[in-house]
Amino acid sequence: MVRFKRARDNGVRVRLGEDEAGLLRRLVAEMRTMLEAHMAGDPVMQRLFPDAHVSSAEAADFRALTEDDLSAAKRSALEAVAQSLGTEGRLEITLQEPDVDAWLSVLTDLRLAIGARLEVTEELMSADVDPEDERAPALVTLHWLGWLQEMLLKAAG
Questions:
Q1: In what order do the strands lie in the sheet with 12-16?
Q2: 3-state secondary structure of 134
Q3: pTM
Q4: Tens digit of pLDDT for each residue in 13-66?
């Protein structure tokens, strides 16, 4: 029962069933835990905080200047989404522009994280999900997050 609809006050009305809201809550909590641990060699962290330069020295300099702010922005967006999701049950809320931006940012980061874990390729994303594949639940979740992001963008636009 997922639904995104433009609200009269220019916000976006969001309706998620209990299962969908619960899944999103768990994913947000897991992302918060990963960001707090911030294990430098983790492929997820490398994807969320990519090197901006080919040169290791320049990449390290750039990272030193930007990583704290980028990490703080990601944590802030996660906090905003967690607050809007509440703690249990289904979800029926209206998001205003700053919260829509936070949701879009978090949905992107969740997709990047799952994609990094699965080592996703274009071929994998364009193929049908094989229910026998051990990655099937994560792949379905990845596709679902992309669909949520698309529906939110359409409703906000």
A1: 3-6, 12-16, 91-95
A2: coil
A3: 0.90
A4: 999 999 999 999 999 999 999 999 988 789 999 899 887 777 777 777 777 788
Eight-class DSSP state of 120:
-
The CA distance from 77 to 72, in Å, is 9
Cα(127)–Cα(143) distance, rounded to whole angstroms? 11
Tally of residues, the chain: 157
Is residue 101 within 8 Å of residue 12, measured between CB atoms?
no
- The token pair at 26 is 């768990």
Contact residues for 97 (Cβ-Cβ < 8 A; gap 6+): 10, 11, 156
**SS3 at position 93:** strand
- CA of residue 38 relative to chain centroid, distance: 16
Beta bridge partners of 64: none
Look at the block and give the residue holding tokens 């433009």. 6
Closest among 3, 12, 2 to 156, alpha carbons compared: 12
